[in-house]
Specification:
By secondary structure, this protein is of the alpha/beta class. It has three domains: 237 residues, 3-Layer(aba) Sandwich (Rossmann fold), CATH 3.40.50.11540; 104 residues, Ubiquitin-like (UB roll) (Roll), CATH 3.10.20.600; 110 residues, NADH-ubiquinone oxidoreductase 51kDa subunit, iron-sulphur binding domain (de novo design (two linked rop proteins), Up-down Bundle), CATH 1.20.1440.230. Helices cover 37% and strands 14% of the residues. It is built from 18 helices and 15 strands. The strands form five sheets. Strands 10-9-15-11-12 form a five-stranded mixed β-sheet, with no helix packed on it. Strands 5-4-3-6 form a four-stranded parallel β-sheet, sandwiched between helices. Helix 6 crosses helix 9, helix 13 runs antiparallel to helix 14 and helix 13 runs antiparallel to helix 16. It is globular. Bound molecules: flavin mononucleotide and iron/sulfur cluster. The site of iron/sulfur cluster has 14 residues, from helix 14 and helix 16. Iron/sulfur cluster binds next to helix 14 and helix 16.
């Protein structure tokens, strides 16, 4: 059986992984989660997984001893593992980038109720196609990460909530669970330790909002995926069946296995401080080599991801960069040429602000946040100068209007108004005032809704209009001018009662 230790991790070019302290810094992929799955001959069955060191991390986790602390206290093996996940700095890979260890520490362990764990395999954010690589090609990596996470959190029943449009992945997962059960890694008395765990696959019906953790929980309970109000319904306290529940993304749970294998200290040397480990980036849009690339968090810049031959390989011939959607469709767009003020630690240890151009932004949680956006689901969509920002926003807004669950009025009505206003701008019926109109509507959605979908729908609008206002105004003005020339239509376009109302369009939602 091959050595499952970190030294056996391979780099992108197949060479052995050097100790972390000597790991390559710069524009290179770094394969930890993707280490095996694209290797020739690698298959999703348990035999192949075990030949590549699979389930050794589980054995190691289950054999973990209790830990004595310097203050005389003792941590149980499960507590010690939870502390390790916290110490590793692992942040959630589903969108918000919240500390996984901290989330686990919020779980109500005194309620006497069962604790559930749900793997969020909905992967619904447009532009994102990373989790499905794991689900299709290496399902046992997820299952091993889940079993370890369940053991650490005293979970006896867990679910994988998978997007309905991924039937093949659901089939593979069910097969992998069967294999894991037969091998004694799942079910009763796992590996003779007395620990019992069952994991079930639950297929969603395919809605963006099913990816939002409380909507997901409602859906799993057999109801319509209406997100719950937080507070009080924080899943760690009142989750599935009103019991304490952990919801983590596919990629997040896979990392737990590597934290066990490497130890939290070594793991935390990957990436950058506060942005540890690796991350799989989905790169799409106007690049030569769209695809999924694993990087050390913060050790590769946006420019390298787009232009380096190891990643996007540059833009299409003759094209120039116009904009980047950096973290899935709901992240705020970044405009070519922007410069951001980022916090940097000086040689004296003091924090100072430095100017960082867009393409030099390290791809990590904190840098993107400081640039006024987010790395979200780590889906980068590149737009070159052939793209109309009006049309791009029209496309996104139509999606959000369609996907609003309809529970809260600002989101249900507002997302539809946004879609109608962008739709008319895309179909020769726009107005110059639409730029202000769109901004006004979006400002009145964000912060006024039950779940973060409100922000997801309004952030693209606010950023597109703010950064590309000239395009929106020019389109509206051109449409007005065309209508003024056409007999009979000018008066209706300029009628005051139409200034704040979306025009009735052919857009159909709900
Ligand atoms: C509208 C919306 C859609 C979401 N879709 C997903 C998704 O498809 N997959 C996912 O992992 N997280 C998604 N999230 C984030 C989840 O609510 C949750 O934060 C995440 O699964 C937690 O996992 P993590 O801490 O491991 O990142 C979504 C959030 C919102 C507001
Ligand atoms: S913000 Fe939108 S998606 Fe979220 S609960 Fe309200 S209506 Fe539903």
């Amino acid at each position: 059986m091959p050595d499952p230790s970190p030294q056996n991790v391979k780099n992108a070019d197949g060479s052995a992984w050097p100790p972390v302290s000597q790991a390559p810094v710069g524009p290179r992929p770094f394969k930890l989660i993707l280490k095996d799955l694209d290797e020739p001959g690698y298959t999703p069955d348990i035999g192949c997984y075990q030949r590549h060191g699979g389930y050794e991390a589980l054995k190691r986790a289950l054999a973990m001893p209790a830990r004595d602390l310097p203050d005389g206290k003792k941590l149980s093996p499960q507590e010690a593992l939870r502390e390790d996940v916290k110490a590793s700095g692992l942040r959630g890979r589903g969108g918000a980038g919240f500390s996984a260890g901290l989330k686990w520490s919020f779980v109500d362990r005194r309620s006497g109720k069962p604790i559930y764990l749900i793997c969020n395999a909905d992967e619904s954010e447009p532009g994102t196609f990373k989790d499905r690589q794991i689900l299709h090609k290496d399902p046992h990596q997820l299952i091993e990460g889940m079993i370890i996470s369940c053991w650490a959190n005293d979970v006896k029943l867990a679910y994988i909530y998978i997007r309905g449009e991924m039937p093949h992945a659901a089939k593979l997962l069910n097969q992998a669970l069967k294999e894991a059960r037969a091998a004694g890694f799942l079910g009763k008395n796992i590996l003779g330790t007395g620990y019992d765990l069952e994991i079930h696959v639950h297929r969603g019906a395919g809605a963006y909002i099913c990816g939002e953790e409380t909507g997901l929980i409602e859906s799993l309970e057999g109801k319509r995926a209406y997100p719950r109000i937080k507070p009080p319904y924080f899943p760690a306290v009142l989750g599935l069946y009103m019991c304490p529940t952990i919801v983590n993304n596919v990629e997040t749970l896979c990392h737990v296995k590597h934290i066990v294998l490497m130890g939290p200290g070594e793991y935390a040397k990957l990436g950058t401080p506060n942005n540890t480990g690796t991350r799989i980036v989905s790169l799409s849009g106007d690049v030569q080599q769209p695809g999924y690339y694993e990087i050390q968090v913060g050790r590769v810049t946006l420019g390298e991801l787009i232009f380096d031959k190891n990643f996007g390989g540059g833009l299409k011939p003759g094209r120039s960069l116009k904009a980047i959607i950096p973290g899935g469709s709901s992240s705020k767009v970044l405009k070519a040429g922007e410069v951001f003020k980022l916090n940097r630690k000086g040689a004296d240890g003091q924090m100072t602000k430095v100017d960082v151009p867009l393409l030099d932004l390290p791809y990590d949680f904190d840098s993107l946040q400081q640039a006024g956006t987010m790395s979200g689901s780590s889906a980068i969509i590149v737009l070159d100068d052939s793209r109309s920002m009006v049309e791009t926003l029209g496309n996104l807004s139509e999606f959000y209007a369609h996907e609003s669950c309809g529970q809260c009025t600002p989101c249900r009505e507002g997302a539809l108004w946004l879609a109608k206003a962008t739709h008319r701008l895309c179909h020769g019926e726009g107005r110059k005032a639409d730029a202000d109109y769109l901004t006004h509507i979006a400002q009145n959605i964000q912060g006024r809704t039950i779940c973060a979908f409100g922000e997801a729908a309004s952030w693209p609008v606010l950023s597109f209009v703010k950064k590309f206002r000239d395009e929106f105004e020019a389109q509206g003005a051109a449409d007005e001018a065309a209508r003024a020339k056409a007999p009979g239509s000018a008066s209706s376009a300029s009628h005051p009662s139409n200034a704040t109302r979306p025009a009735a369009g052919s857009l159909q939602t709900h």
